[in-house]
Amino acid sequence: MNGNHATVNTTEHKIGKVTYFVCSSSSERATDTLDKKIKKLIRKDLEHNAGNARK
Predict the structure, then answer these.
(1) Which has the closest alpha carbon to 4: 26, 21, 34, 31?
(2) What's the whole-model pTM score?
(3) Please, what's the largest Cα pairwise distance for the chain?
(4) Residue 22 near residue 11, CB atoms below 8 Å
């Protein structure tokens, strides 16, 4: 290994009866802010679900 160890954060989220464990770490090369990333994920999910609703 090259010695570059990123700190990994794990959070637990419960939605209904389902528990999600989310692991995250930051990147030195990241260009998006967390807000931008979340907005992109939501937009992508909405586009995906809108396509499925038409079928």
Answers:
(1) 26
(2) 0.45
(3) 49
(4) yes
In contact, 40 and 32? CB cutoff 8 Å: yes
Q: Which helix H or strand E contains 18, and what residues bound it?
A: strand 18-24
Residue with tokens 């090259």: 2
Cβ distance 49 to 55 under 8 Å? no
Tens of pLDDT along 5-54?
678 999 999 989 999 999 988 888 888 888 898 999 999 988 888 776 66
Q: Give the pLDDT of residue 19.
A: 93
The label of the residue with tokens 């637990």 reads: 12
44 vs 16: CA distance, rounded Å: 23
